[in-house]
User: Fold this.
Amino acid sequence: MPQRVFLFYSNRRPEDAASLADLQSLEKDNPKYKLIASMTEMEKSHQPWNGETGLITQEMLGKHLKGAASPIYYIAGPPAMMKGLRRQAYFFPLLSLPLFLLTSAERCSSEARVKS
Assistant:
């Protein structure tokens, strides 16, 4: 893959994170891929976590995206999260380049359009 990929992946707890181990293992196979996983409810978890905690914020994005050249952002999640992100003014100055906010239903149809 020619371009670097940063995947911000937020879940409540590690035990709720679908395919977390698979997403983590991709980093070993591809040096241009970086997973930034964050857990928002670690106080309810029974598993240890050494990664990011809390919601994905401008500070978290800035910390991991320093020096990213010509980025294109895709943000996907459940409808409530997407609605909340659209209200979060702090995302939009940082994400002033191409930005795609996709709900789960939109993601399927958008992926079909991108492939064609």
Summary: The mean pLDDT is 76. Residues 5-115 form a domain with the Rossmann fold fold (CATH 3.40.50.80). The helical segments are 20-29, 58-65, 79-87, 91-94, 104-115. The chain is about 35% helix and 20% strand.
